[in-house]
């Protein structure tokens, strides 16, 4: 999992208050289904300068999520001009509004429309445990073959915990990326790495099976390739199992735990209501995390004679990433499971809202897919996390 430090910190995420009309409206059915034009119109109703700047950054985040590269320059410059003094005085907003230089904005303005080819064909795409067949890594993750218009193919981690697709610089060059010359971005990783640099660029085409994304704005770095939730969420109805990604599968017959697509900011995520060690929380479904379960808070020390008591282990350090391991009780939709989970001091799981209150998040990672499968159907609003 990696998280944006630009829009994540710049958007002032709060529980909606009585005077926050834009954020109240976004939570309504109309707001959830609103177009970008409707979002802009609603934000422009905010006459208070601070509130207008807040919602403008949220709209900008939605534009990045929607991949509308050619719409970004006009809005980006309009907000930058209208709120120049507040942006200059803000340590969080100033880097955000330095993300694109003049040359990059000119390229974005002439980029073709982002599009996704439509298909009703049922496809079963195999997931591979490693980035290639010649290198056996210590950790197993779901890698999928992704192609480009020029015929180059590479394996990407199928990462529902990554808000944005990220392409390795070498892969991007092989696929024919057009790098934006004066655009830069900063991000953090789950393991506490902060302020890492990434570039941005436009790929003419990315293909997953017979689906094709065209004119794709992507982040480019020296890290591994990740197919993030920004594109996964645009693949239509799908199912992720331990061995395959299915496109256009039959609708799920049951729903053990309902999934919400949470997109308050650029760090959109798939979440499911859960309890860990009797604490109500939101679980982020993160196929790019190697653990079964990772917690935002450490477990509780337990009485050894109590059965199924949470938090019953000592600290542990492994593979150069410090963590503590605990035994606990996970509850989702009536399913009660004894689990072993990890807590990483200094980690960067984004905050979550439940009932207007911030609660600690947990990550259900790739190892959890030996027990679960993900059925994603955002168009119908019926997405489920089911026991296998």
Kindly describe this structure.
This is Retropepsin-like aspartic protease. 21% of the residues lie in helices and 33% in strands. The chain is α+β, with helices and mostly antiparallel strands. Strands 1, 2, 4, 5, 6, 7, 8, 9, 10 and 11 form a 10-stranded mixed β-sheet that branches. Strands 15-16-23-17-20-19 form a 6-stranded mixed β-barrel. Strands 3-13-12-24-25 form a 5-stranded antiparallel β-sheet, with no helix packed on it.
Q: Which bin fits the share of residues in helices?
A: 10-25%
Q: What does the average pLDDT come to?
A: 86
- First-last Cα distance: 24 Å
SSE-based structural type: alpha+beta
Number of strands: 25
- Detail the poorly predicted runs: 8-18, 301-320
Strand content: 25-35%
| Global morphology | globular
Largest sheet: 10 strands, mixed
Number of helices: 11
Question: In summary, what is this structure?
Answer:
By secondary structure, this protein is of the alpha+beta class. It has helices spanning 7-10, 21-26, 29-32, 36-44, 49-66, 72-82, 84-89, 93-96, 102-109, 169-174, 229-232; strands at 2-4, 115-116, 123-126, 143-148, 153-158, 166-168, 178-179, 185-189, 196-208, 211-221, 226-227, 238-240, 244-247, 260-262, 269-276, 279-285, 293-295, 315-318, 321-332, 335-343, 352-354, 357-359, 361-364, 372-376, 384-387.
Layout of helices and strands:
Layout: E1 2-4, H1 7-10, H2 21-26, H3 29-32, H4 36-44, H5 49-66, H6 72-82, H7 84-89, H8 93-96, H9 102-109, E2 115-116, E3 123-126, E4 143-148, E5 153-158, E6 166-168, H10 169-174, E7 178-179, E8 185-189, E9 196-208, E10 211-221, E11 226-227, H11 229-232, E12 238-240, E13 244-247, E14 260-262, E15 269-276, E16 279-285, E17 293-295, E18 315-318, E19 321-332, E20 335-343, E21 352-354, E22 357-359, E23 361-364, E24 372-376, E25 384-387
Parallel strand pairs: 5-11, 6-10, 16-23, 17-20
Antiparallel strand pairs: 1-8, 2-10, 3-13, 4-5, 4-9, 7-9, 8-9, 9-10, 12-13, 12-24, 14-15, 15-16, 15-19, 17-23, 18-19, 19-20, 21-22, 24-25
Helix pairs in contact: 4-5, 5-6
Pfam families: gag-asp_proteas (PF13975)
Protein name: Retropepsin-like aspartic protease
